Amino acid sequence: MTFALTLSSSDLLLLLPEILLTSWLCLILIVDFSFPQLPNEQLAYFNIAGLVATLGCLVWFDVNGITGTLFANMFALDRMALFFKMFIVGSTILVILASIDYIHRFKFFRGEYYFLVVMSALGMMFMASANDLLSVFVTLEFSTLGFYVLVAYLREDIASNEAGIKFFILGIFAAALLAYGISLVYGETGKLVFSDMTTVQATPGLVIGFLLIFAALGFKIGAVPFHSWIPDTYHGSPTPVTAFLSIAPKGAAFAILLRMFFVALATFKPIWTLLLVAVSILSMTYGNIVAIAQKNMKRLLAYSGIAQIGNVLIGLATGTKMGSDAMLFYLLTYLFANLGAFAVVIAVSEAIGSEEIDDYSGLGRRSPFLAFSMLIFLLSLAGVPPLAGFIGKLYIFIAAIKEGLYVLITVGLINIVISMYYYLIVVKKMYVNEPHDRSPLKVSGPIKAVVYVCLAGTLAIGVYPQPVTDWVVSAIMIFSNVADPTASLPIPPAVIPFGG
Amino acid sequence: MIEELASTFPILTCILFLPVIGAVVLWLFDDEDMVRTSALAIALLELALCVFVLLRFVPESAAMQFSEHVPWMPALGISYHLAVDGISVLFVGLTAFLTVLIVIYSWDTVRHQVKLYMMALLALETTTMGVFLSLDLILFFVFWELMLIPSYFMIKLWGGGAERHYAALKFVLYTLLGSVFMLVGIALLDINYHQWATLRHIEPTYSFDLLELLSVPIPFSQQILIFWLLFLGFAFKAPVFPFHTWLPDALFEGPIGMAVVLAGLKLGTFGFIRFSIPLLPDASKSQTVVSIIMALGLAAVLYGAIMALVQQDFRRLLAFSSISHLGFVVIGLFALNYQGLQGSLLTMINLGFSTAGLFFIAGFLYSRQQSTHLGSFGGMAKQTPLLASFFLFIGLASIGLPGTNGFVGEFLILLGTFKANWLYGGIAVTGVIFSAAYFLWYYERSMLGPLGKAVKDSIRDLHPREILIASALSLMILWIGLYPSPFLNMMNGSVQALVDRLERGTVASLEPKQQVRVD
Q1: Contact assignment for B187 to A395 by CB distance below 8 Å
Q2: First-to-last C-alpha distance (Å) of chain A
Q3: Interface predicted TM-score (ipTM)
Q4: Which of A387, A420, B183, B466 has the lowest tally of Cβ within 10 angstroms?
C-alpha cells in the first residue's frame, strides 16, 4: 500500500470544518493569553461562535451532499460522519453554555478550560471520520487527551484528582489494548482500512485483535465489563465535564464501532451479534440495578448512562440498517435527555452546593421549572411516551424484534421497569418530600437556555419525530448494502389452514 | 371489512385535548375558587362534546365513526388515528361523566394544592380519552403509559393512607411491567404486517393501525405469542387475577377521585375487546387460551368475592368486589359469543356507574368519619337516611338486582357463559350469590342496627353537592336498568362484527378494503 499525500484544494474542502475549528482553537489561546482580563462569559461566547460556525459548515456540507475520502481512505467524510460531527459539535455548544457559571469554581486556567473542551471536540470530530485502524488510534487518543486534564480540573478537590488518575490509568490501559489489537489485526491481514477487510478470514490472531479493539472502544462507551472507570470519574469530574464525557465521546466511539462492525466485519455478523448481545444485556442490567442504590445524582446518572449505552448496543447488535438508524436516533434522544438532566444538576449544585439526591427534596416547590425539566428528562430516559426516549426505545426494539433477538428484548424491557423505579425515587424526592430549606432557587440565563433547548429537543422529537427519522435513515444510507432485512425472512403463507 | 365514517369537524381531537389544554389554563389562575369553577366548566364542556358525539353516533353499525387519520411517523407506520365505534363510544361518555362528578366531589374534599389536583385530574381525563379513542396501537400505548404519570402523582400527593408512596410506586411499576410486554406484542403485530405488506407490495410497509392490522392474516403460533404478550399488558392494568395485588393498595391509599377512575373505567378489559379479540381471533378461541382465561376469570370471581366478605374496610371491600366483577367481565368476553361480549361490554359501563358510585359513597363516609373502617360506623341509617338509601340503591345495582343496570349486564354474561359451557356458567352463578352476601352483610353492619359508638352525634346527612352526585349516578343506573336498548343499540353493530370476525378468523380479512366517506 502506498500513501499518496497529494492534496488538491478540493480535498482540503472536505476538512473545512476541522480546519475551521483548529484555527479557532489557536485563536482562543491567543485571545486568552492576550486579554487575561477578558470576562469568562465573553470568552465562552467567543468559543460558541466558533463552534456555531463549524456547525453551520457541517450543515452546509450535509445539505449539499459534500462527501468523499481523504488520505488513502483514512479519513471518510460521509453523511454518517457528518451526523456524528453535528452531534458532537451540538453537544459541545450546550456543554460550554452550561459551564459558564460552573467555571467560577476553577481558581486558575479558566480560559484553558474552554480550549480543552473544544480540543476534545475536535478530536472527536476526527474520530467520526476515522476509516482505518491507524486513524482510529490517533483520533481516539487525541480526543481523550483533553479529557485527561478536564476530569481533574478541580485541583483542590480530592475526588476530582482521584477521577483524573483513574481515568488516566485506565485510559492508557485501553490505549495499549487498542494498539496491541491493531498490531495483531495488521499482522494477520496486512490491512488497515475498514473497507479493505471485508474479505478477511477468521484466524485466532484476528479474533483476538478485534476483541482487543472492541475492549478499547467498549472502554470509551462505558459498556460493561469495561465500565469500571465510569462511576468515580463521573462523580469526581466537574459536572459540565461529566455531562460532556457522558455524551460526546459515546457518539464518536459509536461511529467507529459502526464502521468496524458494519463494514470491516460484516461477514462475521452471526458471531459479533452474540458478543454485542451479551455486552448489551450486561450493561443494561448492571447499570440499572446498581443505579437503584445510588445516593448521588451524578452517580445515578452515571449508572443510568451505562444502562442507556446498553440500549444503544441493542441497535448495533441487530446488525441491520434499521438497527443502525435506530441507534443514531436513540443517541440523539439520549443527548437531549442526559445533557438536560446534567444541566439541572449543574443548576441545582450552583444554587445549593450539593449533588446528593436527598438535597433534591422539595425541588418542586423551590424551583418548579428545574423540577419539571428534571421530570421530563428522567421520564424520557425511562422511555415514557410521548417523549423522545420512548420513540428511541420503540425504534430500537422494533429493529431488534425484526431480527428475532427475543432474549435481548425481554431483558431490555424488564430493565425499563427497573429504571423507572430509581427515576421515580428522584421524582418522589422532588415533588413529595418536604424541602430542607424553602427558599426559591436562582437559575442563571445560560443554564436556562441549555435546559430549554434540551426540553424542546426531548418534546419535539417525541411528538414529531418524522424529520429526525428521515435524517437518520438518510445519514446511514452507506449501510443499506449491509442487510436487506426482509430478504431473509420466511414467506408467510397466503392462507392459513385453520379458522376459515 | 370495517368501514370508516370520517367527520368534517375534528370533534374527537377536541374531546381528546380539551382537558389537557384546560389543565394548562388552570395553571394561570391563583384563586382556588376560580380554579374549581374553571375545572368544572371544562369538565362540563367536555361532557357536552361527548354527549353530542353520542347523539350523532349511528347505532346498529360496525363502522368506525368520526374518524380522523393523519400520518405521524410514516417511517415506522405510526399514525394519529382516532375514531369511535360501538365498543368505545360509551366509554368516552362515561369518562366525561365521571370526571364531572369527581370535580364536584373534590370541591371541598381536596383542600391542599387544589390547582395541581385539578390539573392532574384533567390530564388524566385526556389520557383516558386517548386510550378509548386511539385506533393506532402506538398512539394507544402512548396514552396508556401517560396515564401512569397523573395517576402516580394523584395517589402520592392526595392519597389518604400512610402507605400511599408504596402504593403509588407499586401501581406504576406493576402496570409498566405489563405494558412493556404489551409493547413487544404490538411490535410483533407490526413486523407481521410488514412481512405481508412487503411481499405484496402494499403501501405502507409498516403500520400500527388497527384497521390495517386487521386486514392481514397472522400465523397461529404468532397469534398465540402476541396474545399472551398483550394479555400481560391488559391483565396487569385490568387487573385480572392473579395480577391484582396493586389494586387494593392503590384504591385504599389513593384519593377517592383516583379510585373512581381506576375502578370505574375498565381499561384493561377494554383492551381485550378492542385489540386482543379482534386482532387475534384464532388465538382467542383456541381451547388452551379459553380454558386458562376462563379459569383465571372464575378464580377472580370467587377469590374477589370471598376476600370481600371478610374485609373490615369499605374501600378494601370495594377493591376486592371490583376484582370479582372484573372476573365476570373476563368470563363474558371469553365466552366469545354475542351475548357474552355484549353483556361484558355493558357490564364494563355499568361498573362505571355502580362501583364508581360506591366509591363516591365511601368518600361521603370518609369525609364524615375520617375512616372507611367498619369500626367507625353502625346504625347510621337513622342519622343519615339519604346517605343510607343511596348506599343501598347503588349497592343493589352493583350486585345486580333486577331493575338496575347490573342485572342486565350480569344476565347477558351468564346467558353467554352458559351457552359456551354450562360448567363455567354454573361456577359463575355462585359469584352472584357471594356478591349479594358481602354487600348486604356489610350494609347491615354499617347502616342498620344500634348506633355505633364511634359515630359522631354531629354527623350530617348528604349536602346538596353530594345529593347531586348520588342522584346523577342513580338516574343512570335506573335508565340502563329499565330501558337499556339505546345503549345496547349503540354496541350491537360492533359486537356483531366482532362475532363474525371470531367465526372467520384472520383470513376473513382478505376481502378488499372499502372506504366510505360520509359527511
Answers
A1: no
A2: 65
A3: 0.74
A4: B466
